[in-house]
Design a protein that fits this description.
The complex is a heterodimer of chains A (116) and B (114). With 116 residues, chain A is mostly beta strands. Chain A is built from no helices and 12 strands. In chain A, the strands form 3 sheets. In chain A, strands 2, 5, 6, 10, 11 and 12 form a 6-stranded mixed sheet that branches. In chain A, a hairpin with a 2-residue loop joins strand 7 and strand 8 (64-69). Chain A is globular. In chain B, strands 2, 4, 5, 6, 9, 10 and 11 form a 7-stranded mixed sheet that branches. A 4-stranded antiparallel sheet of chain B has the order 1-3-8-7, with no helix packed on it. The radius of gyration of chain B is 13 Å and the shape is globular. The model of chain B has no long low-confidence stretch (mean pLDDT 93). The chains are: A mainly beta (116), B mainly beta (114). Chains A and B meet through strand 5, strand 6 and strand 11 of A and strand 4 and strand 5 of B.
Chain lengths: 116, 114
């Protein structure tokens, strides 16, 4: 079974600064996918960024990037030039490859607050 | 854009009632999921389905059942609601067979059992 751990229950950052959210996971799978989801207050959960484990290059989506350290089983999310709209709960999630039918295992979540 | 619609944003029910939570997706996705979200625990998988009438237990299926009679609809049933089932419930769907496809979520149903 897989486990995902987010050790930072809450984080805060000033607008325009950079913040990094931590995520570690444990698995015996060799083929898997990692995701960061964002859940704004009272709004729908949306995908922020994804990483395939077989890709060595870290994924980037505009101001969002990941630091994927496969040997250390670490998958942190960096948000650059933070904006007020980035205030949300962030979830790290793991999905095994193969016939897992797309099941996700989520971390506990990190509440990020961006201050003006 | 994928749209996943949950029938209620807020629901209040009484202990012992049979409760139905409905979820509809409009993208012909084979995969559908029900999660519950609790503070400090993240999202935990209750049940999932990969085809009509096909269902599999997730990590916490006790006290719940599901129904998938049509491809677009996936219902979560609380057979006899209890106070420990007070939670946020999230439905999601995903296209099967495309490995890096993410799940798409509904807005959630905040269920209170009194």
């Amino acid at each position: 079974a897989q486990t995902v751990t987010q050790s930072q229950p809450e984080m805060s950052v000033q607008e325009a600064e950079t913040v990094t959210l931590s995520c570690t996971y444990d698995t015996s799978e060799s083929n898997y996918y990692l995701f960061w989801y964002k859940q704004p207050p009272s709004r729908q959960m949306i995908l922020v960024i994804r990483q395939e484990a077989y890709k060595q290059q870290n994924a980037t989506e505009n101001r969002f990037s990941v630091n994927f350290q496969k040997a250390a089983k670490s998958f942190s999310l960096k948000i650059s030039d933070s904006q007020l709209g980035d205030t949300a709960m962030y979830f790290c999630a793991f999905r095994a490859g193969g016939t897992s039918y797309g099941k996700l295992t989520f971390g506990q979540g990190t509440i990020l607050t961006v201050h003006p | 854009d994928v749209k996943v619609t949950q029938s209620s944003r807020y629901l209040v029910k009484r202990t012992g009632e049979k409760v139905f939570l409905e979820c509809v997706q409009d993208m012909d996705h084979e995969n559908m999921f029900w999660y519950r979200q609790d503070p400090g625990l993240g999202l935990r998988l209750i049940y999932f389905s990969y085809d009509v009438k096909m269902k599999e237990k997730g990590d916490i299926p006790e006290g719940y059942s599901v129904s998938r009679e049509k491809k677009e609809r996936f219902s979560l049933i609380l057979e006899s609601a209890s106070t420990n089932q007070t939670s946020m419930y999230l439905c999601a769907s995903r296209q099967l067979g495309v490995t890096n496809q993410p799940q798409h979520f509904g807005d959630g149903t905040r269920l209170s059992i009194l």
